[in-house]
Known about the structure:
Low-confidence stretches: 200-240
Distance between the termini: 45 Å
Order of helices and strands: HHHHHHHHHHEEHHHHH
Number of strands: 2
Strand order of the largest sheet: 1-2
Strand content: under 5%
Largest sheet: 2 strands, antiparallel
Helix content: 40-55%
Amino acid sequence: MCLSTKTKLCLLNTLPRIITSSTANDYIIYLKEPIINRAILQRFLKSLSHLDIKINVQMQMVKEDINNIQSRTPLEDEESNKLREAIQEYTEIYNMVAENLCYVKPAMFIKIFDKEIIKSHNTHTQYLLFQMAVKYPKLVITYILSNIQNNSAYKKIYISYLGSLLARLKTDRKIVKKSLEHFSNFLKIKIYDSNIKGDNNNDKHNNSDGDSDRDGRDDKHNNNDGDNNIHNNNKQDNNNHIHNNISKEIILMSQTFLYILCFHRELLLENEKLIYNIFNSNIIKYMNKNIVNTFIRTCGNNHGINLNHNINLKEYNSDNYIVDESLCYFPFDPTLIKDIGEKYKKSYRIF
């Protein structure tokens, strides 16, 4: 296909604000066309995101089982039928984009994804990034890590993306190991800079006695990260920190670190020092209780790790757990749309 400049301009000028399943076929072929494919892809992602949000809202309104909605079983409820139609339309457009993603340069896709999807908390469209990571794992992971390191405005979302991707993506173990090393180094610096003290300062694994994890930094550094209000029962120093200089960012990073290790238990021993530091501080008390309990059950006192912690899980579960959306957001948790789940089955890790 070779379009004239005039034809390309005409096409862009007539591009609809939202692409539907009835118009998708008219535009998907232009993802192969250089120059204009950027605008075409951007409009497709925007349209998918719009439908994604619509589906999420409709899911909250129906009582019918989601598997029945996606089957051929006749539905009596009007809202269930509307949801079925929305899922069918979404899946049709999604599959078109997924099948033609090979014609799009990875760097261009990432930039558009960053603009259209990363901040929207979609529950299905982000799997296009997963698809890109299957083919270009280093590129996608580096993109996410760089946004964490550079303190992006959406840093907490990138942290959630990193944890979920490293946990779920079946890829070279060396890539996972290297990526976790980079992330754990960020976390060590955050913990040290915040001067977080453990509950047991004499513990042999506590990192408050001047070791290499201090990264050559001194105690004058303070951590001022975190920008969302947290509701909890502990005294807060300010909107960025809770008890003992622990920022919301450190809580999320520590939780993400443990979450990744739940899926990659072969990396437990080489990360045991940081694991002990997290468990011997108050950080553990403010995480998502499901992640902590899963880590303790599957990794604690096993695989050569002896946590030997003194945490009253009942007390921490009821009194300290922070209601914060970022602690419950896992972008690549199993999708409810069957067709998307089946598409990535071979590359997807089940816990």
